[in-house]
Amino acid sequence: MWQKLPYNFLIAVEAIYQNKFRAFLTSLGILFGVASVISMLAIGTGAQQEILEQIRLLGTNNVIITPVVEQEEGKVTEEEDQTKTEKKRFSPGLTLTDCESIENIVPHVDYVSPEVVVETVTIRAGLRRSAKLVGVTSKYFDTSDFILERGNYFSEYQQENSLPVCIIGNSVSAKFFPQEDPIGKRIKAGNLWLTVIGVLERRHISQSNIQHLGIRDFNMDIYTPINTMLLRFRNRAVVTRDDIMAAARNQNDTETLTAEERNYHQLDRLVVRVDEVRYMSTISDVLSRMLERRHNDIVDFQIVIPEMLLEQEKRTRTIFNIVLGAIASISLIVGGIGIMNIMLASVMERIKEIGIRLAIGATQLDILLQFIGEAVSISITGGIAGIMLGFMMSSGIERFTGILTIVSPISVIVSVVVSVSVGLVFGIFPARRAASQDPIVSLRYE
What we know:
Radius of gyration: 35 Å
Number of helices: 16
Structural class: alpha+beta
Shape: elongated
Strand content: 15-25%
Strand order of the largest sheet: 2-3-8-5-7-6
Helix content: 55-70%
Number of domains: 2
C-alpha cells in the first residue's frame, strides 16, 4: 500500500491540474473556513492575553476598597412635616486606622496597602510637568508586582519619620533625568523637594486598559511614603464635616462644591492582599460589615474584587469565542460537503477512465487512494491558503478595529489537521464509490 501511495497521489495531482478552476472553486469553502477559524482563535487568544495583562496590572488575590463621597441628602421624617431632613450620622471615612484594623483582625489577610493620590506639578532643571504624587507604604509595590529597576524601596525608618524621599516611574526618570542617574538627586513635587531613592521598571500599559480598568499610567507617577504625604502634603482627616459645610455656606450653594471639596476620606484606596483566592468572597463580606460598623452604619465605601470581575469577563469572552468558532466551523462543513459533491460528480464523469485503470491492472485500493488523494490535496491546498488568509484577516482586524489578535502555533496546527481530516472524511465515500465500479460496465460507459 505504501509503495502505491506516491504513484496514486501523482495521478490525483495530475487530475486536479487538468481541472484547475473546478478544484479552486471546490477549495474555497475550506479556504474561508480555515481563515475564519484562525482569525476567531486569534481574537480569543488576544482576549486571553489582555485579561492576563489586566490581572497582572490589578494584582492577583487583591480586594480593592475605594471611598464613596457621601451626598448631602436624607430621608424626610413625618414628625418634621416633611420639611426637614434626618440628621446625618458622622463617618470618619477610610483612614489608616481602618487599614491597621483590617490587617490585625481579619484572618487570611497578608497585608493591607493604603494609597493617597494628589495631583501636583513636578519641577526640575527648568522642566515642568503635571504628575500624580502617590502616598504609599512599601507593601504597595507588591500588590501589582512592581519591579525596581535601580535603587531601593522605602525603609521602615523613612516611612516612620515621614522623610521627603520618593520612588519615581520610568517615564519621570526619562523626562527629568535623561542623561544622569536620578538616585540621590532631588525633584520638586508641589512645594516640597523630594530625594529620589528608586526608579521603577517601565510598565507597558495600553490605553484601553487605562480606560477600562480605571488605572493610571504608573510610569508617570511619583511615590512617597504615606506618612510623608499626610504630614507634608494633604491629610483630609483633619478636615471636619463642619468645615465642609462652612465652605458650602460661604458659597451659598452646596452643589458648587467639587468632589475633592466634598471628599472627607483620608485615603483614596485600600488594597487588601488575601493569601488564598478561595477566601476572597468571604473576606469581602467581612470587610463590608466591619467597615460599616466602623463608619457608624454609613456605607461610604465600595469593595471590588478584580479577580472575580476579570474571571467573569473571561468566561463571557470564552463563550463568545466558542460561538464565533462554531459559526466559523460551519464554513468547513460546507466546504467538506462541497468537496464530496464535486468528487461524486468527478466519479460520474470519469467512469470510463476508472474502467481503463481497472482493466490494465489497477486494484480497487489504487482507485480508492487516487480519489482520496484528490480530496485531501484540494482540502490541504485550501487549508494552506486559508492559513495565509487567516494571518491577513487577523492583522486587518487588529489594525482597523483595535482588537488584539494573536495567531498561536496551535491554531495553525489545528487548521492543518482539520483541513486534512475534512478531505479524508468527505473524500472516502466518493472514493469508495469509484473503487466499486465494475470495469466491464465502466469501459462501455459513454
